[in-house]
Amino acid sequence: MSGEEKKLTMIDLARVSKTFPPDVHALADVSLRIRRGEMIFLTGQSGAGKTTLLRMLCGIDCPDKGYIEIAGYDLSRISGGEMQKLRRRIGVAYQDFKLLPDKTVAQNIAYSMEVSYRSRPFIRSQTEKLLTELHLLDKQDALAGKLSRGEQQRVSIARAVANEPELILADEPTGNLDAETALLVTQLFRSYNEQGTTLLIATHDQAIYDFPGSKVIKIENGRLAIQKPPTLVKKAEGKE
């Protein structure tokens, strides 16, 4: 990959494999390149490997084989300090939310901005904006642990995008939402993508990616099976 291609690449995986004991092959020889500013939907059945892939992109899990680069950083060689800085550039909406249950909705959303030393006016403005867009303004002072699962999911999404990250990773972001609320979330993601943010969204929900021009990758039994367009996926031999 040339220097110019490297600058244009947000995610680069080469022959990545991951096995969990005793013999669960979560990912097998996965190669994938996603350019900056792309919005990619990762589909597949439960257990296909979607969550494992996202967890490795977050640095939570490490591959057994292959390498992963995010924004030019090789995750196998990155220092602790560099990883901390990189994580500030990535927003993650986890499938199990990972909210602070004893903090309010507003405090949970503000957290990702506070650790990046954003100004108080920015934090207040951004929090109110997201609460309004996701129809949560009336819940801003409620404890996150007291919310319904659908409300918690929206808070998790708001926290993921609040710091205006370069990369957003979302794991089943509409899994607990009705169709109308799922549309709000989809519109929010698209608005960030239009501003240049790269998004990788793992989902079962065909409604959020079934539109002209969407870029979809299907994963089956830990392997990339179907992709649209096919140029997103690098062949194992290294050919583009």
Automatic annotation (TrEMBL):
Q: Which terms are listed as keywords in the entry?
A: ATP-binding, Cell cycle, Cell division, Nucleotide-binding
Q: Name one GO biological process term.
A: cell division
Naming one, the record's GO cellular component terms include: plasma membrane
Q: Which domain of life is it from?
A: Bacteria
Q: Which Pfam families match?
A: ABC_tran (PF00005)
Domain ABC transporter, first and last residues per copy: 11-238
Picking any one GO molecular function of the record gives: transmembrane transporter activity
Q: Which residues form a coiled coil?
A: none
Against Gene3D superfamilies, the record matches this protein to:
P-loop containing nucleotide triphosphate hydrolases
Q: What does this protein do?
A: Part of the ABC transporter FtsEX involved in cellular division. Important for assembly or stability of the septal ring.
Q: Which family does it belong to?
A: Belongs to the ABC transporter superfamily.
Q: What is this protein called?
A: Cell division ATP-binding protein FtsE
